[in-house]
Amino acid sequence: MTEHGAVPDSANPDVVLVGGGIMSATLAALIGVVAPQWSVTVFESGPDVAGESSDAWNNAGTGHAALCELNYTPAGPDGRVDPSKAVAINEQFQVSRQFWSYLVRGGMTGSPKEFVTPVPHLSFVTGEDGRAYMRNRYEALAAEPLFAGLEYTESAEELAGWLPLMMTGRDPGQTVAATRSVAGTDVNFGALTRLMLDDAAGRGVTVHCNQRVQRLERETDGRWRVTVRDAVTGERRTVRTRFVFVGAGGGALPLLQSAGIPEIRGFGGFPVSGKFLRTTSPELVGRHQAKVYGQAAVGAPPMSVPHLDLRLIDGDHSLLFGPYAGFSPRFLKAGSMFDLPRSVRPDNLGSMLGVARTELALTRYLIGELLQSRSARHATLTHFVPEAEEHDWDMITAGQRVQVIKRDPATGRGMLQFGTELIVGGDGSVAGLLGASPGASTAVSAMLSLLEQCFPDRIPAWRPALQEAIPSYGRRLSDDPALLAEVRADTMQVLELNG
């Protein structure tokens, strides 16, 4: 260290990754494939990696493959269902599975069952309108190669076999319909993140915990000066690097703002916290071996889609039902109450105010959720589990989600985006990821996009290594049935998803 806390150039890394979550872990692993000679340092503000949105209790763990999430298959005015978004997300998830398989084959320690297990994915609706939608959705998806094997039923008797916990006590006259895919999975992204970063550390990647990156500053030679504060001692230090990725979840927005890149102008964030009802009752868990998504209530945002998920975390099974929305101005669970107000800048004030005016339905939804009593939350659960008893379920708080606010290029007004946004500085030396779902499940595709946008001149040389790690790289599985069959068989075998 120099007298001013700066690390000498010889000790500075080629790459700095801010945040010890699934995105940074994935990028570190990809850099290990294409540029193993680069030095990489990870700074995580918490006491351990994967403590925020990547933690198993802080995300749904669905392994978003669009097999069951109805918000990815919208219906048009004529009732026809557009499968394009579902197909795109499933393609991205297949890319993740291929890369995980490559890491496992390459010796990433631990059994694949530590982070991924097979769990059927179902979509469930009630009422005549719901059934009509489900029929159209099934017809649209069943024609897609990636969704081969999707099953459909309107039979309450058959559903009693698929979902005994949800069908017991249900009105026998109620109209029901569902689809099921036995190709679904439950993914523990916290465990996967830790395995990936442990593997990266074995290759020389340095991972620092309790180190909060406070500021990013561009220096005259084009490098980035990264100011880091030790959360335990309060000591500050700086490192210089040629490339910075900000994968800090909700903490990404303020850091990209501090970098001063024009690409972040106009962007804001709206934090939403989630709560879930959880049961660990062996009797209840034994009667619901699936992940089931329903339809959001009329006027509710996409993030409110109710689901009842089987989870396997640290060897223990449980069921989670939700989400129930909450609100906190924090951008991270361990963040500050001033995160939201500090993120408001002159360049994004118009976007923020525009969303405040246009998203009145979201505001009403959040207020209603915050005012819900325990009995009202339990009543929502009984739509899924008719005979649910309050005493079997406890409330847990999941991770913070910061929804992206950006300017609509067509109107210039602010709009709320329920997805992810990759922000890349003009010269490709800094990048960051904003937003939430589908997030972790599509991390590999997101980080591949980052490599392509930040290092376009290197991609031709990197392509063979990327294709070895991800056989479908540069191609669409939905357009190549032979490759799809080969990839699907390989990933199922390597990730031990045959049982």
TrEMBL record:
A GO molecular-function annotation: L-malate dehydrogenase (quinone) activity
TM ranges: none
Keywords assigned by UniProt, alphabetized: FAD, Flavoprotein, Oxidoreductase, Tricarboxylic acid cycle
Gene that this sequence comes from: mqo
Entry EC number(s): 1.1.5.4
Gene3D superfamilies for this protein: FAD/NAD(P)-binding domain (3.50.50.60)
Catalytic activity field: (S)-malate + a quinone = a quinol + oxaloacetate
Cofactor: FAD
Name recorded for this polypeptide: Probable malate:quinone oxidoreductase
Species annotation: Blastococcus deserti
Family statement: Belongs to the MQO family.
Top-level taxonomic group: Bacteria
Biological pathway: Carbohydrate metabolism; tricarboxylic acid cycle; oxaloacetate from (S)-malate (quinone route): step 1/1
Keyword Oxidoreductase appears in the UniProt entry: yes
First-level EC class: oxidoreductase
InterPro entries: FAD/NAD-bd_sf, MQO
Pfam families the record matches: Mqo
